[in-house]
Amino acid sequence: MLQQTFKKPENWSMYWKETMRQMNSIGIGSLVIVAIISIFIGAVTAVQFSYQMAGSLIPRYYIGYIVRDMTIIELAPTFSCMVLAGKVGSSLASEIGGMRQKEHIDAMEIMGVNTTAYLIQPKIIAALVVIPMLVCIGAFISIVGGYLASVPTGIFTHGEYVQGLRSFFIPYNVTMMFVKAFTFSFILTTVSCYQGYYVKGGSIELGNASTQAVVYSNILILLSDYVIAMMMAV
């Protein structure tokens, strides 16, 4: 499927318009859910670690440092993409699967259109551009969520949290975050499009394909998360 997907477009303007439409659908349409999840991820991380470290000899400002690195390295890319696999992945599988069932894909193939490229290539390109942006925004919002959950409630002071955020920063962690974001976005898009493109049967089979797209995407995201961690963090 991927071999057919990345062939040269027949009409560049059509592919460009479809890519822009997918960027708007995936990016703008998912911004709110990513923001909500991210702010609570940061808040829970800050509160939980402050509870675990209470009474220990570890400096309190380490909470900001832990929230920052946990968010950048693991929580923002993994949680955001797993949620997007449920929202975006099921949507892509249903969209393409519906076209397959209504014979829209067959009609385009009769007209000589490379349906694999036209239907899937813009979605992959849009995901590779937009989802890393969403992950980056999610990481920032998560750090803000940690601040809102800890400083106004008196768990620790503004200065301690900011000191933790500015301590021991390694730029390589941001590179790892974007590597994960690109990998996860490619996985969730291709798996979902594959499930929708090759669906057979009626509405029950389409529902199963959407479910399988989410399940397989999440499994592969977790597996690739482990592989990337082993390759880049060890």
Write up this protein:
The protein has 234 residues and is mostly helical. The protein has one domain (30-229). Helix content is 82%, strand content 0%. The longest helix is centred in the N-terminal third of the chain and has 41 residues, at 12-52. The radius of gyration is 21 Å and the shape is elongated. The model has no long low-confidence stretch (mean pLDDT 87).
List the helices and strands and how they pair.
Layout: H1 2-5, H2 12-52, H3 62-101, H4 104-110, H5 115-150, H6 158-165, H7 172-197, H8 203-232
Helix pairs in contact: 2-3, 2-5, 3-5, 3-6, 3-7, 3-8, 5-7, 7-8
Question: Short description, anyone?
Answer:
This protein is mostly helical and 234 residues long.
Order of helices and strands: HHHHHHHH
How would you describe the oligomerization state of the chains in this entry?
A: single chain
Unreliable spans are: none
Strand content: under 5%
Percent helix range: over 70%
Secondary-structure-derived class: mainly alpha
The whole-number mean of residue pLDDT values reads 87
Number of domains: 1
Approximate shape: elongated
The end-to-end span amounts to 34 Å
Number of helices: 8
Task: Give a short account of the largest sheet.
Answer: none
Radius of gyration: 21 Å
Number of strands: 0
